[in-house]
TrEMBL record:
It holds the Pfam family Methyltransf_31. Belongs to the methyltransferase superfamily. Arsenite methyltransferase family. This is Arsenite methyltransferase. InterPro entries: Arsenite_MeTrfase-like, Methyltranfer_dom, SAM-dependent_MTases_sf. It is an enzyme of class 2 (transferase). The keyword NAD does not apply. It comes from Gracilimonas mengyeensis. One of its GO terms (molecular function) is arsenite methyltransferase activity.
Length: 302
């Protein structure tokens, strides 16, 4: 099967268009495909996602079934923290993070799909949150100042980005000294078949964009992070009715018998420096109710 290898910008545009479509799909459809973007499996089969149902702060309207972990569960978010969510989608992880930060904290979601931003803002308005903001932007070049965030989270997004080292350098830039991230993502052990690796649709589906686990961890270390820890790891299996779109029967058999390991991992790492503060010592952040510059629900600013 012949495939055409796309440039980084072409891949990003493919992802942008696909996730604009996904923003209009239901969770049930997305959960039966690869991060919502690959072909739908005929099995009622949840390929990637963990169950958010029992997580405090969960909002069903904001859950499109696109994640591959529960990074907020491991993110050590404290009251008053400033949290940034990369690839925030319809806002699910932001709303879970907001439960942890409380009204005295701030949560910023960044996404480069305008329809996702619109959906997330609508969900925030319905919840009446005035300390959750959604900002349009590319996570390779975040529209965020240096040294502002206590915590960065992301859920099955970095594998969609062509320049992963650039994203980790951006995360390092926006974190305060002593800040940390918890990120769920897809990584590999072994090589994917060429038909999967070079297909843009499977790239948008979170699989073809995945890199070797050791390389992924090396990028984190090279960005300057320390205390790098894999908090959770689980294998991912791709159903045969999705594989059959890319591989013949013999190739599928070989893939299943001795193919690569595809894993969802949740990784923690920390930026050196800073002093740990209790929630009572944290500085107040902007956009809180009762302040002159507060962002009111329905105003369009959050």
């Amino acid at each position: 099967m012949e495939t055409k290898k796309k440039s980084a910008e072409e891949l990003k545009e493919t992802v942008r268009k696909k996730y604009a479509e996904i923003s209009e799909q239901g969770k049930d459809y997305n959960a039966r495909s690869c991060c919502g973007a690959g072909g739908e499996s005929t099995k009622v089969y949840n390929i990637m996602t963990d169950d958010y149902g029992e997580v405090e702060g969960y909002n069903a309207d904001a859950d499109l079934g696109l994640g591959c972990g529960l990074p907020t569960q491991f993110a050590k978010i404290k009251k008053g923290d400033y949290v940034i969510d990369l690839g925030s989608g319809a806002g699910n992880d932001c709303f879970v993070a907001r439960h942890e930060t409380g009204a005295e904290g701030k949560v910023l979601g960044i996404d480069f799909t305008e329809s996702m931003i619109a959906k997330a803002r609508k969900n925030a308005d319905k919840l009446g949150f005035n300390n959750v903001e959604f900002r349009y932007g590319d996570i390779e070049d975040m529209p965020v100042s240096d040294d502002v965030a206590d915590v960065v989270v992301s859920n099955c997004v970095l594998n969609l980005v062509p320049d992963k080292p650039k994203v980790f350098s951006e995360i390092f830039r926006v974190l305060k000294p002593g800040g940390h991230f918890s990120i769920s993502d897809i990584v590999l052990e072994g090589e994917l078949p060429e038909a999967l690796r070079e297909d843009a649709e499977m790239y948008a589906g979170c699989v073809a964009g995945a890199i070797q686990k050791e390389v992924y961890l090396d990028h984190i270390k090279e960005a300057g992070f320390e205390n790098i820890t894999i908090q959770k790891e689980k294998p991912i299996e791709i159903p045969e009715d999705i594989l059959s779109k890319y591989l013949d029967e013999d190739e599928i058999a070989g893939f299943n018998e001795g193919g690569p390991g595809i894993y969802s991992i949740t990784v923690f790492a920390q930026k050196a420096g800073g002093e740990e503060k209790s929630s009572s010592q944290k500085e107040m952040v902007t956009m809180l109710g009762g302040q002159a510059n507060a962002c009111e629900p329905g105003s369009g600013c959050c």
